[in-house]
Amino acid sequence: MGPPHPLRSRARRWTVSMKRVSPLLAVVVAVTSFGAGLTAVHAQASPAAPTTVPASTVPTDTANLGRGLVSLRTGKGNFLSWRLLYDDPQGIEYAVYRGSTRIATTKVTNYLDVGAPPDARYSVRPVSKEAEANAQAENSDGEVSTLATSQDVPIQKPAGGTTPDGVAYTYTANDASVADLDADGAYEIVLKWDPTNAKDNSQSGYTGNVYLDAYELNGTRKWRIDLGRNIRAGAHYTQFQVFDYDGDSRAEVVVKTADGTRSGTGQVIGNVGADYRNSSGYVLTGPEFLTVFSGTTGEVLATADYVPPRGTVSSWGDSYGNRVDRFLAGTAYVAGTSRPSIIEARGYYTRSVISAWDYSNRTLTRRWTFDSNSSTNGSAWTGQGNHQLSIADVDSDGRDEIMYGSMAIDDNGNGLWTNGTGHGDAYHVGDLVPSRSGLEVYKPSENSSSPADWVADARTGVTLWRAASCGCDNGRGVADDIWSGNAGAEVWSSAVAGLRSATNGAQVASRKPGSTNFVIWWDGDRQRELLDGTHIDKYGTSSDIRLLTASGVHSNNGTKATPALQADILGDWREEVIWPTSDDTALRIYSTTDSTSVSHVSLMQDRQYRLAVAWQNTGYNQPPHASFLNP
User: Fold this and answer.
1) Nearest to 390 by CA among 408, 412, 413, 410
2) Contact 580/554 with Cβ under 8 angstroms?
3) Rounded to whole angstroms, how far apart are CA atoms 317 and 13?
4) CATH of the domain at 74
5) Would you say residue 129 lies in a domain?
6) Which Pfam families match (predicted)?
7) Which of helix, strand or coil describes residue 516?
8) Considering the entire predicted model, what is its pTM?
9) For residue 56, is it within any domain?
């Protein structure tokens, strides 16, 4: 372990703030049902040594996290879960208190208080002289209440409207992100509202405006940003980043804007009366901006011209406005560990342009731009992008690379590699093959002449194996460790039979999982489970086993069936799922209540995972992957 982070003293104080908010969190207890061959473990787990991470790899915006203690009501009692933090000492123990009574001491970060009353209040204190002294101050008013099974984060649906061609629309809660917007040590939620007439870029027609809201976890709305009529609604248009870019402990919100965008404090960007929509509903003229908004107030902090500009529409692959407006976004530590940069990207079917921006002192500064059309790059870089990106330090130099489908951009803006396998619809970057050093990339291919899917070295792009072409668009694919019967990660895709090893592509089980969507750490083991639509399942070689069926909620993005957000935002290292309620009046947060002997530092303090949560809303949403395969 490195020395304590200079902000840890503030983190300890802010734990009180998190615990004061926690009783208001909307957490629904996940009722886990097990089939044959699986047993629900609710007894107290045996101690396990926690996993530590180097301070140099901890994302700067998570240095102030508190314990995130949560208590959830179950049929057997109250289930408690809390964070292991990166600078906790090895072998740390925790004292669990119900009210003023110490009821247990444990080395793991969860506890089931069997038979406890539903109105019990709890606190957790590290067991050491120094930590216990700090904890006394932390917990003087920092107890959490036990949450019922149906508490929600209330949200405020925007009023609907009618487009110029007379089509009425309402609003649906869509993708979300989390960050500490106001330096109180607790996460807030930033939510995108899509109109019901949102369009794919290939579809003509007007859309309603897109809104971004910020909510405290008790449902208090902090602000609303109206992106205006000159930002079209759809999965490929609005990618928003929520992160602390200037190091003031308050996250900013960064998004593409246009004339008529209105901030959370009422400021209007550009010409409020401008209307650049053509008769097909596309916006193919007029200025384009990149804007940084305050996460605390929603006010405009900085605006710059968007790079690259659209230029000639047909230069991006078609003339009617489809491929010119395919945007991606992310956050990356391209300059090292001190401050993150904003990553903005346009295009992937033909030309791809990626730019890195720094934000400080109310100023946006462009650090570099990669352009596949540049004379220094050449045709090999054309058409290699995906419907999403990933961010990872693939060469272990402390600086992040932009993983962009069948190519990667180095931290300095130069092309790192391209393997020429073309565009795809799904993408996974992580330590898929732990038996070899470094990270790997898994990608299915849309091009019918390309390999159906492949795994490559993330540093070089050299494929470890390639599946034969399926002569089709292999539109879905996932890579992660979902089955303990095989070493390392498994991969599966729509067009290739069986569950296969990420190491060599060999089939390890004839049966594929029942879904090809998200994966999530949910139960108590080290493998991930399957998240699809509004349910979570555990893979089995004979059948999937249902662990959770969420009720009264909806998934997002049509057939993609993704949640508003999947992230480790509460309790221990297992992940939460946020779905909007069916009537879009609340966001419902589900969290596991399975005991586990596995202790691991909060996933949000793994840099690759935290950055994946930031880019999760981009394009065709993908699940977040950490820099490691198993906790």
Assistant:
1) 408
2) yes
3) 54
4) 2.60.40.10
5) yes
6) RGI_lyase, RGL11_C
7) coil
8) 0.92
9) yes
